[in-house]
């Protein structure tokens, strides 16, 4: 197993690599070669044997083990003849004891409440005694996390991100598939109808939030709907969203020479993932294959894929507005604040806008805007060298016209109200009303574009870049900022290893100021 950074033990990291593919493998159990199942069964027996050098550890030790109990339970529920029946009596005792401990084990007060539920599904299929009240309590806690609009808060103070579709709602559908318990199925269906707006016409999903290193897990909900036979959207639409998403990912350089998923996003780069994401983590993406549980004559498979069109979709509970423009690209206007405990949380959550066409950048240690990388953001500085963006803020409000307004306070004596509005032509507008008692440098960015082969154009109020078949442009609406194009630190962007970025710079003296800008990203070069 490749050695990568992690906040888990090496045993836990290895266990991820062993068990996460089970989400997909169990869904396609009869198409998986017998020798693969034999190897998995034998290795799982060693991983859960306390006397074996490969033992992953006790669930009571905490950490990642409880997470992976869900995929073990899922696979045992669907494919006991592949994983369980080949085991000897002692191995069965070990697996039973470990999974039973996981069923009763401690969980973070987040989407983790689903992990014991799936451990319980495995126990039930194997006929191992367990108290159903434990799973019921976890499921009830999930309901307490609903914010309204069929959106979940990922634990107290948690964010609304891809954990809604690829965890909460996907698990609700798969739980329904195994148990017939439909308590959260209608919430999943309602969310799916808005979730369509997160996907571009080319199949890419707008990158936002943490755990983007799970890659095509972003599309797992479409397969889970098919697995559960829940027609939340017309099957032709679900099929199109799923197929285009996998096709888009298949065209990206995300595999190593041996065919394994790498750590990163659109290319291998472990600097752009959270502290908990390691070499085995990306295999969570195999949840996208749960749709294989739907029979071959299901409409999810037989329907011709429906295209998607322009849309403006407010997500009030998610504090976001999604706009799919006439070219099919998605912009997310974002009101949620940063996620302070996750590495890169300010970049993943704190920017004002995110794009399926141009993604976003993480900041890197160092002085200057080239390290701060203000794409989709307004950055502020006292000295012009050390920059900060939006961190804590209110969660924003969305009016009847789809205008998102956020108030934030980067210093005690600096208050800012930012308004965001997007159109279906690739443009969006930002207005910042700033009241400051100190002198501030400002740096505001449009969208990054690939460095290689780029052409730049700069005048008094505008900076634009054409590169890689796209155009990125920012226009100053107030006329008192300097336009330029910078080269951010290499390796900071999710899509491209090296980029350029149109920016506006200015200086604000103490007082009240209004900054206006228009920002474009698109393929009209």
UniProtKB/TrEMBL annotation:
<dbReference type="InterPro" id="IPR049349">
    <property type="entry name" value="DUF2264_N"/>
</dbReference>
<protein>
    <recommendedName>
        <fullName>DUF2264 domain-containing protein</fullName>
    </recommendedName>
</protein>
<feature type="domain" description="DUF2264">
    <location>
        <begin position="324"/>
        <end position="451"/>
    </location>
</feature>
<dbReference type="Pfam" id="PF10022">
    <property type="entry name" value="DUF2264"/>
</dbReference>
<feature type="domain" description="DUF2264">
    <location>
        <begin position="3"/>
        <end position="307"/>
    </location>
</feature>
<dbReference type="Pfam" id="PF20938">
    <property type="entry name" value="DUF2264_C"/>
</dbReference>
<dbReference type="InterPro" id="IPR049237">
    <property type="entry name" value="DUF2264_C"/>
</dbReference>
<dbReference type="InterPro" id="IPR016624">
    <property type="entry name" value="UCP014753"/>
</dbReference>
């Amino acid at each position: 197993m490749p050695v990568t950074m992690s906040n888990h033990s090496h045993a836990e990291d290895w266990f991820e690599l062993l068990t996460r593919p089970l989400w997909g493998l169990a869904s396609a159990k009869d198409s998986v070669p017998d020798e693969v199942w034999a190897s998995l069964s034998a290795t799982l027996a060693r991983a859960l044997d306390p006397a074996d050098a490969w033992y992953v550890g006790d669930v009571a030790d905490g950490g990642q083990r409880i997470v992976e109990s869900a995929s073990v339970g899922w696979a045992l529920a669907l494919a006991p003849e592949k994983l369980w029946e080949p085991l000897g009596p002692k191995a069965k005792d070990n697996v039973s004891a470990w999974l039973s401990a996981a069923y009763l084990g401690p969980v973070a007060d987040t989407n983790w409440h689903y992990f014991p539920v799936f451990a319980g599904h495995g126990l039930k299929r194997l006929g191992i005694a367990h108290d159903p009240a434990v799973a019921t309590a976890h499921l009830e806690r999930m309901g307490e996390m609903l914010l309204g609009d069929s959106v979940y808060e990922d634990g107290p103070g948690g964010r609304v991100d891809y954990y809604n579709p690829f965890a909460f709602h996907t698990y609700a559908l798969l739980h329904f598939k195994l148990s017939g318990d439909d308590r959260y199925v209608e919430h999943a269906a309602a969310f799916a109808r808005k979730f369509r707006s997160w996907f571009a016409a080319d199949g890419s999903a707008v990158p936002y939030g943490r755990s983007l290193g799970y890659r095509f897990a972003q599309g797992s909900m479409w397969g889970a709907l098919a697995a559960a036979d829940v027609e939340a959207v017309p099957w032709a639409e679900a099929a199109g969203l799923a197929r285009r998403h996998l096709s888009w990912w298949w065209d990206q350089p995300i595999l190593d020479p041996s065919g394994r998923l790498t750590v990163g996003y659109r290319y291998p780069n472990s600097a752009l993932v959270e502290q908990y994401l390691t070499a085995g983590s990306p295999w969570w993406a195999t949840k996208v294959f749960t749709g294989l549980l739907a029979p071959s004559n299901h409409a999810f498979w037989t329907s011709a894929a429906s295209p998607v069109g322009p849309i403006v979709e407010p997500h009030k509970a998610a504090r976001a507005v999604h706009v799919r423009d006439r070219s099919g690209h998605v912009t997310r206007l974002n009101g949620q604040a940063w996620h302070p405990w996750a590495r890169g949380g300010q970049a993943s959550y704190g920017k004002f806008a995110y794009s399926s066409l141009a993604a976003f950048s993480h900041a890197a240690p160092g002085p200057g805007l080239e390290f701060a990388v203000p794409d989709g953001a307004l950055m502020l500085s006292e000295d012009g060298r050390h920059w900060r963006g939006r961190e804590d803020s209110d969660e924003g409000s969305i009016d009847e016209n789809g205008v998102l307004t956020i108030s934030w306070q980067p210093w005690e004596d600096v208050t800012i109200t930012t308004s965001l509005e997007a159109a279906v032509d690739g443009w969006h507008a930002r207005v910042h009303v700033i009241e400051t008692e100190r002198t501030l440098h400002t740096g505001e960015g449009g969208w990054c574009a690939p460095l290689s082969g780029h052409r730049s154009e700069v005048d008094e109020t505008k900076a634009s870049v054409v590169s890689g078949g796209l155009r990125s442009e920012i226009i100053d609406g107030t006329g008192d900022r300097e336009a330029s194009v910078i080269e951010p630190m290499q390796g900071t962007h999710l899509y491209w290893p090296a980029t350029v970025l149109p920016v506006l710079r200015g200086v604000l003296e103490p007082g009240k100021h209004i900054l206006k800008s228009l920002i474009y990203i698109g393929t009209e070069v």
